[in-house]
Amino acid sequence: MGLLDKIKKKAGDAASQSEGSSTATSEKKNRVMVIGLDCAPPRHIFDEYAGDIPNLTKLRENGVWGPLDSIIPPITVPAWMCMMTSKDPGTLGIYGFRNRKDHTYDGLSFATSWAIKEPTVWDILSKQGKDSIIMSVPPSYPPKELKGVQIGCFLTPNEEADYTYPKELKAELKENVGEYIFDVRNFRTDNTQYILDESYKMTEARFKNADYLLANKPWDFFMMVEMGPDRLNHGIWSYIDPEHPRYEPDNPYQESLRDYYRYLDGKIGELLTKYADDDTTVLVVSDHGAKAMVGGVCFNEWLNDEGYLGFEGERPNEITPINKMNIDWSKTKAWGDGGYYGRLFLNVEGREPNGTIPQADYEKVRQELIDKIEAMVDHEGVPMGNKALKPEELYTTNNGVAPDLIVIFGELRWRSVGSLGHDGIYTFENDTGPDEANHAEQGIFIMSNAPGQETGPREGLHLWDVHCTILDLFGLEPAQGALGKSALKS
């Protein structure tokens, strides 16, 4: 009897014996395996591709499953670490890939693993003497000490870096497995076939390394994150989604994402068959979903037009990053940053070096900007439905240097463009390279072979719940201040 058949039988037996009980029994599972699929949306896993991914579908049909609410904003960094710590971005002090180091004008720095101060699942398990295998969970570069082994994430700069813990694991993997591919390099390209080919190569290498580690290293907890779905969503969404404004029927790549999921599902099935036995609970999760991207809002062009951002000299005719502009801080009240959402920063007296907004006027100016941003219309004059949110109202606390406003353009169908020189507020060309999709508010959650657990769909699941669920499976309490709850309890 194969693994997935065993899971199905065991789930059916447990359901009949428990008569619908939704609480975990005192008998805890020996092992937990988590497979993370970055940017995998519910519509694909639960609906459109369900018939093409039999392994994932069997896990779902014989387990607990449902959409997984992401953080605001739904960004890979810090979403995975919010999931693994059950804390919000404000508590982590990480509001995206790039964050202000201080209140100077020196720009933004990239988040690394050293920014994570809250205990992760594997930190807690290590203290309990349990072994973990952690592969590419962002941000996990540089890798940190734990009881077990770790491989860095897509933020790893190159093959020369020390991307494993312990350090000697790098040479062991190279000798016994071969190349470890962290990411699809230069994935923002019009070369669609390149994105597809490199995504397959990356996934193949990731699962080969996972196979080696599971076979050769002790483990109670295993977790890997596969970036393939994310890179393909951003690279080929217009080919696969009829709702995308650039979609053309019967295009040559229309089934390419479905084909990739078939391949990915096969790799997952092979891993489960070899290493997930009756004493292993399997979770499949994603940090957020995906949706068609209409275009970009040139945030700093708009702030300049509205009189909040001033420059020395004329606005550029060529696309120019804001950090290459000569900003006149004496004439600037606010500036913004690009990305899948917008971050707005205010120039406040006594806080920024050349602040222009009196402290007493801070809330007045901020509310004025909220009203204007939320009243914006798109290129056709239709209200965009923007949201400009105050971090202190979103998060339990705000560590580090939070944006003054977090801006969601057009319900995430528009991105924020930070550069200037676009000859208008709206653009349909991305200043950082081609991009077909934005992130969406919900990812996926599947849990199969959990002890004494009801099966079927579940509403109200949040990304924070994953941390609590994993630790509950080991009979452990979540980290202090955890925001989630265990999915073992309804």
Topology, pairings included?
Layout: H1 3-18, E1 31-37, H2 42-48, H3 54-61, E2 63-69, H4 76-85, H5 89-92, E3 98-100, E4 108-110, H6 121-127, E5 132-135, E6 148-151, E7 164-165, H7 169-176, H8 192-216, E8 221-226, H9 228-240, H10 256-275, E9 280-285, E10 289-292, E11 295-298, H11 299-305, E12 334-337, E13 342-346, H12 362-374, E14 387-389, H13 391-394, E15 405-408, E16 414-417, E17 426-427, E18 437-440, E19 442-448, E20 456-457, E21 461-462, H14 465-473
Parallel strand pairs: 1-8, 1-9, 2-20, 2-21, 5-6, 5-8, 11-16
Antiparallel strand pairs: 2-19, 3-4, 6-7, 9-19, 10-18, 11-17, 12-13, 13-15, 14-15
Helix pairs in contact: 8-9, 8-10, 9-10
